[in-house]
Every structure is written in structure tokens, then in C-alpha cells.
Design goal:
Oligomer: single chain
Radius of gyration: 23 Å
Distance between the termini: 30 Å
Bound molecules: flavin-adenine dinucleotide
Mean pLDDT: 95
Shape: globular
Strand content: 15-25%
Length: 562
């Protein structure tokens, strides 16, 4: 058995946001943490993601003169989530709001470079305590070459799949490059940044890769061991305390001890179909096949914690993401519900939600309204307004980014249904023609004057921000009136599960009697989230993992001598 005698203070399972932040905080306090990561890559879903962190009252807001506070944050969480329950207890909400800004300051002091996502509204900015000016921060475009041989060990993310060095704050404008002057200018800047960096021989990391890459560099410089290809299989209990893990390291069994405990930051179980089916049951039945979460997030660490007696909550819940069929995933279908001239309908041909609201809210509404799949209905005005690739083709193929060009095989093969009338479209998708006709007529009455009396689409700055800024008077609502008409099935995909072990405000895992399991901490999607069954803003999930990783490390630091 390898490494049995390594004297680590804290064993951190998983190299996502919570694991990376906890390791840096523990190291900065003089402890010896180790990160054990199952995959050959660092960063999990965190590296793959948009990489924003939603932190109310953060120091970058302060520096920009934007007023915010924990009190505003608390009011907002109460308005969005509702009354506290155990995972989203008053103490955990307060802990998140108090530690978040401190964590950002700490990371900046350590050398992490972030920028404020100014103008990216809270998802319910129209609720009490909500902010339209934005509370999210994101890693700056960062040259991955600084990682040396570790450069290729960061889980490839969003920016790499788009093919541009684009930040998450900027990404939405790429679709609108031909619609407005600001979007054109921003797209030009992003293209210029990308090609200039290539000329300089740089490898710019953006989004989650910037965060994970920068954090990895800080950890390596601080001498923190990061063990890749090390899969944790079991938790080790000695004298009534969790004292380490049993793992398979490069295929060899290894016992890794943590004098002060173990932090579980191994993500959700989105990629474990058996667990998904078990916990979603009949209410939100989902086998995980629509998930785009990190393939390594398969739930065995969560299962080990449950076997040890950990209490769980929200196990049927996920960070839902309304998702078109996979082969069309990298297209403007992903933003259609934010744009005018589109609606979602259920099997009965009825609308059921404000389509432009948070992806988590829309996903839940799909389940609650017999809308799995939902049908995205749009007209030719939408087709013409957007480019149909969201990857940046090589410059010589730029024509593919010209708005309106739906790949012809999607139509020919019937992946996108097309018809000259709404009634004919309804017949193609097996929906009652009269019902769909009535829905569209009703929607069009309001949409003609930019209103949505049924679901108030366009009511929030968040709705309007993600819409088509060239469309007046409401950037997210426009009639479905220009033939031909189109339909695409949309399923409740996700970017991760958000149920797991129940923790207290110190990120300690609780047992069935609500007592902390000695030596055991959890952060991120491993734990039932502090945000209940809601999603308050851009980067909420990464903030959740990073802040509770930070909190866990602080608790270990504060209690190490006790
Ligand atoms: C494409 C995409 C875009 C997203 N965009 C955003 C966004 O903009 N904002 C936002 O807030 N959220 C976003 N999310 C969701 C967010 O990234 C995740 O919810 C969050 O990063 C989860 O963090 P985590 O630390 O819990 O898990 P992860 O970051 O997934 O890390 C868990 C790690 O644990 C490892 N692991 C698993 N099992 C074991 C084991 N047995 N032994 C050792 N290691 C193990 C995994 O391999 C993984 O590396 C996005 C997700 C995706 C996929």
C-alpha cells in the first residue's frame, strides 16, 4: 500500500472549486493539505464552466463603487429561496454571505486575478435585495503557459469549445454580433484578443479554465501536492473520526491520512444514471443522459458518506439546463428561449413558464407541467436573427457565423421540424393543432406590444439582458408570426446535481441525528446547496463550492489544536 505515512493535515477529495480554494486557504495557514483527484485533469465541472462566482458584497463591487451588502444579499436570498430549511438554514445563508467577500479578498491577495461582471444581473433582480448591476466575478483571460507541464492538465472548458478567448460575461454578445454595434465591437475585440494571443504564442484560459488554471498555479507554487488519477473509494474512520481515505492511485491501492480530517469536494452524481434514477423517482425522472456535467462526477464519494451515516437532502434536484438534442447543442438553440419570436409549449400545446427565467426554474417547470420534452417553437424572424453556430469557425469559414443559416441537414433529417402554418407544425410534433394555434394567437396579442401578460417574460433586467437588444420594445418578447415555423424538442439537461449530504454552517457533514460526523466536511455539489431549490445568480454554484470549501478550511484551521 502506497503513501501510508504521508503526514497530511487535510485530505481534499476532488479538484473542483471547493477543493482548490480549501487547499489554498489551508496551505496559507501553514497546514499541509493534499488534493486527490480521480481524473487525469484538474478542475472538474468548475474548469468546464463559465467560471463566474456569485458573491454579494464582494470587494470588486466595492472598488467599482457599486453598493451592496450582506444585508441586501440576505434579503434577496429570503425573497428567492423562501423560508430557511436545514441545508439552506439561516446560519448557512449568513455563513455564505459573510465568508464570500472575505474569500474573494483572500484569493486576490494570493494572486488570483478576477474582474467584476458588471451589468450581469441577478436572476431575480426585480425581487427585494436583487441587483441589476451584478454580483458576479470571473477570472481574467490568463496565459495557461504559466503552468508549464501542468498546462494540459486543466479540464478543457467553455472557451476552448467556442474556439475563442471569450469570457462568460462576453459570450452572449457573440450571437448578436450582426444585431447591434456594441455586440459587433465586442465580438471584434474578442476575435482580435484571440488571434493576437496566438501570434504571441499564448494559450489564453478563460471562464472556468482561468479560475482552475490560476488556482492550480498558486497551489503548485505553494507546494500543495495534487494527485491526479487517484480515485477515492472509501472513507477511513479511526477512533470515531474520519481520518483519511482509501483510494486507487494510478491503479495501486493507497491510504491517505488527514490528521484534521477529510473534505469531500468530489462534485455531484450527475453522471451516475443508477443514482439519478433512484433519487429522481417518478417526480423528476432523469437518468443523467442529458447532463453536460463533468464525466468524473459519478457519486461514489457521496455513496461512501451515506454509508457512513450522513444525512442527505434535495437528492432529486439538479442545476437544470433546458437542452436541445446533443448534436445541436453548440448552436443558437441554446439561447432561443432568451430571444424574441420563441416560446416553449408542453405536450398539450400550452405555455407553462417565463421561458427567459433562470434555467433551474425553467427545468423544474418542465417537470411540473408535463413538458418533458418541451417543444421550442420559433418563427423565421428568429431564424434570421442569429448565427447557427456558437463555436467560432476558422476565419476562412466565417460565413457559417452569418445569421440565418440553419444547417440544411438538420431540416432535411427532421431534427428541426418545419411547416408553413402553426397548425401543420403542431401535426408534425403530435400536439393538438387548435391548442397550439390558440397558444400562439394569445402570445402574439401581447407580444405585438412587447408584453407577456401570462408569464411576464421581459419583466426583469435579467430577462432583457439576455435578449435581443436590437428588438424593441421588449428584447425578449416578439410575435411568432413570420412563416415558416419551426419546432425542436428540449429536455431537462443539467450541469450538475445539487442535492447531497446535509452540512452545518461550518461545512461539517451531519449525521441522521443532526450531529457533525467528526473529521468530515463537504463543499459544492457533494452537499445539499445553501440556495435551496433555486439559483439566484450567475456563478451561484461555483460560489457555493468555493465559499464552503473556504469555510471548511477555516474551521479546520480554527480547531486544529482542539
Ligand atoms: C459546461 C458547464 C457550464 C457551467 N457554468 C456555470 C457557471 O457559469 N456558473 C456556475 O456557478 N456554475 C456553472 N456550472 C456548474 C458548476 O460548474 C458546478 O456546479 C460546480 O463547478 C461544481 O463544483 P464542485 O466543486 O462541487 O465539483 P467539480 O468542479 O465537478 O469537481 C469535482 C471533482 O471531484 C472529482 N471526483 C469525483 N469523484 C472522485 C473520487 N472518487 N475521487 C477523487 N476525485 C473525485 C471529479 O473528477 C471532479 O474533478 C457549469 C457546469 C458546466 C458543466
Amino acid at each position: 500500500m502506497a503513501d501510508a505515512d504521508e503526514p497530511f493535515d487535510l485530505v481534499i477529495v476532488g479538484s473542483g472549486g471547493g477543493g482548490l480554494v480549501a487547499a489554498l486557504a489551508a496551505r496559507a495557514a501553514g497546514l499541509r493539505p493534499v488534493i486527490v483527484e480521480k481524473q487525469g485533469f484538474i478542475g472538474g465541472s468548475t474548469a468546464m464552466s463559465g467560471g463566474m462566482l456569485w458573491i454579494p458584497g464582494n470587494p470588486l463591487q466595492q472598488a467599482a463603487g457599486i453598493e451592496d451588502s450582506s444585508a441586501d444579499g440576505l434579503e434577496y436570498l429570503q425573497a428567492v429561496i423562501g423560508d430557511p430549511d436545514q441545508p439552506s438554514s439561516a446560519a448557512r445563508r449568513a455563513a455564505f454571505l459573510s465568508a464570500g467577500p472575505r474569500m474573494v479578498s483572500f484569493l486576490q491577495q494570493q494572486g488570483l486575478r478576477l474582474f467584476l461582471c458588471r451589468g450581469y444581473p441577478d436572476y431575480y433582480d426585480n425581487y427585494p435585495g436583487g441587483k441589476a448591476s451584478g454580483r458576479s466575478v470571473e477570472g481574467v483571460p490568463w496565459d495557461g503557459r504559466q503552468l508549464g507541464e501542468w498546462r494540459t492538465r486543466i479540464n478543457p472548458g467553455l472557451g476552448k469549445s467556442v474556439g475563442l478567448a471569450v469570457t462568460t460575461l462576453e459570450i452572449h454578445s457573440l450571437f448578436a454580433w450582426a444585431r447591434t454595434l456594441p455586440a459587433f465591437a465586442l465580438t471584434a475585440r474578442v476575435v482580435l484578443r484571440t488571434y493576437l494571443s496566438r501570434l504571441r504564442g499564448q494559450d489564453l484560459f478563460t471562464n472556468g479554465m482561468s479560475f482552475a488554471g490560476q488556482m492550480t498555479k498558486l497551489l503548485l507554487d505553494a507546494g500543495v501536492p495534487i494527485w491526479l488519477n487517484t480515485a477515492v473509494e472509501e472513507l477511513v474512520v479511526e477512533d470515531g473520526r474520519v481520518a483519511g481515505v482509501r483510494a486507487s492511485r494510478d491503479g495501486e491501492p493507497a491510504l491517505v491520512r488527514g490528521r484534521h480530517g477529510v473534505l469531500l469536494a468530489a462534485g455531484g452524481f450527475e453522471r451516475n444514471s443508477e443514482m439519478r434514477l433512484k433519487y429522481t423517482g417518478d417526480t423528476q425522472r432523469n437518468d443523467g443522459s442529458w447532463s453536460i456535467g463533468n464525466p468524473g462526477n459519478t457519486g461514489e464519494v457521496l455513496a461512501a458518506a451515506i454509508a457512513l451515516g450522513a444525512k442527505t437532502a434535495y437528492m432529486d434536484e439538479a442545476i437544470w439546463l433546458p437542452t436541445p438534442p446533443r448534436e445541436m447543442g453548440a448552436s443558437s438553440l441554446t439561447i432561443a428561449r432568451d430571444y424574441p419570436h420563441t416560446i416553449f409549449v408542453n405536450a398539450a400545446g400550452k405555455r407553462f413558464v417565463n421561458e427567459s427565467n433562470s434555467y433551474v426554474e425553467v427545468g423544474r417547470a418542465m417537470y411540473a407541467n408535463d413538458a418533458v420534452p418541451s417543444w421550442l417553437i420559433f418563427d423565421d424572424a428568429y431564424r434570421r436573427s442569429v448565427p447557427w453556430v456558437n463555436t467560432m469557425p476558422p476565419l476562412r469559414q466565417l460565413a457559417r457565423a452569418i445569421p440565418g443559416r440553419i444547417p440544411s441537414q438538420w431540416l432535411a433529417e427532421g431534427k428541426i421540424k418545419q411547416a408553413g402554418t402553426i397548425e401543420d407544425l403542431a401535426r408534425l410534433i403530435g400536439v393538438e393543432p387548435q391548442a397550439l394555434g390558440e397558444t400562439v394567437t394569445r402570445f402574439n396579442e401581447g407580444a405585438a406590444v412587447g408584453r407577456d401578460p401570462d408569464f411576464r417574460r421581459g419583466i426583469s433586467e435579467y430577462n432583457r439582458h439576455l435578449g435581443d437588444h436590437a428588438h424593441k420594445p421588449n428584447s425578449s418578447v416578439g410575435t411568432i408570426a413570420t412563416p415558416p415555423f419551426y419546432a425542436v424538442p428540449i429536455n431537462p439537461g443539467d450541469v450538475g446535481t445539487m442535492g447531497g449530504v446535509v452540512c452545518d454552517e461550518h461545512a461539517r457533514v451531519l449525521d441522521q441525528d443532526d450531529q457533525p460526523i467528526p473529521g468530515l466536511y463537504a463543499a459544492g455539489n457533494m452537499a445539499a446547496t445553501v440556495f435551496g431549490r433555486t439559483y439566484p445568480g450567475a456563478g451561484a454554484s461555483i460560489a457555493n463550492t468555493a465559499v464552503f470549501g473556504y469555510i471548511a478550511a477555516q474551521h479546520v484551521i480554527a480547531t486544529q489544536d482542539s
